[in-house]
Amino acid sequence: MGATPKWITDYYKDFRLKERTKCFKTCLKCGETKLISKFSVDKRNLDGRISVCKACRSLEYPKYYYNNRDKILIQVREYQKNNKRNRSIYFKDYREKHGEQLKEKASKWYMSNKEAIKERNLKYYQENKEACQTRREVWIEKNKERIREYNREYKRKHKLASQGIA
Ligand SMILES: [Zn+2]
User: Fold this and answer.
1) Rounded Cα–Cα distance for residues 132 and 140 (Å)
2) DSSP symbol at 45
3) What pLDDT score does 22 carry?
4) What is the bridge-based pairing of β-strands 33-35 and 24-26?
5) Could you tell me the end-to-end alpha-carbon distance of the chain, in angstroms, rounded to an integer?
6) Is pLDDT at 63 greater than 80 in this prediction?
7) Which of 8, 39, 129, 133 is most buried when burial is the number of CB atoms within 10 A of its CB?
8) Domain boundaries, the chain
9) Separation of CA 50 and ligand 1 centre (Å)
């Protein structure tokens, strides 16, 4: 007895991986640790990014693609044909069956590890301040219009509320 249940270790592994790769990821090809934005998105990967950086991929992929393009096209078509429906049905089904259970487990785990998580996040932030700050600035720059809209709406509601209208 005393062994940690599998769902906890799995969840924790997943969590750790996400944490570790929040701002940085190490490229399997060149071995350099780069900003996460230097890696393309791939939802099939646990951390949501492909393992090889964009720079390496842009060097490698055309060569590979050129030599194997017929094979690749057939593979892609086959894969899409076979998996499109199955995959989405499987995930939908799984979520429907286990969604509540998973959520509950996750939140229980979170509650009992709250302090440790907070501490780790803080530590991570301090160690990677600059990259996180950069990411934040990029995000703000990209969402300028949305933020302005949000602020306008907030002010409007606030004003109405203070006048007793809303
Ligand atoms: Zn690389």
Assistant:
1) 12
2) S
3) 64
4) antiparallel
5) 58
6) no
7) 39
8) 115-160
9) 11
Cα–ligand 1 centroid distance for 37 (angstroms): 12
Q: How do residues 110-147 score in pLDDT, each as one tens digit?
A: 888 888 888 888 888 777 777 777 778 888 888 888 88
How far is ligand 1, taken at its centre, from the CA of residue 121, in Å? 27
pLDDT at position 118 = 85
Alpha carbons 65 and 70: distance in angstroms, whole number: 9
Spacing, Cα 56 to ligand 1 middle (Å):
4
Ligand 1 center–CA 34 separation, angstroms = 8
Q: Give per-residue pLDDT as tens, 80-112.
A: 887 776 666 777 777 777 777 778 888 888 888
**Distance of CA 166 from the midpoint of ligand 1 (Å):** 55
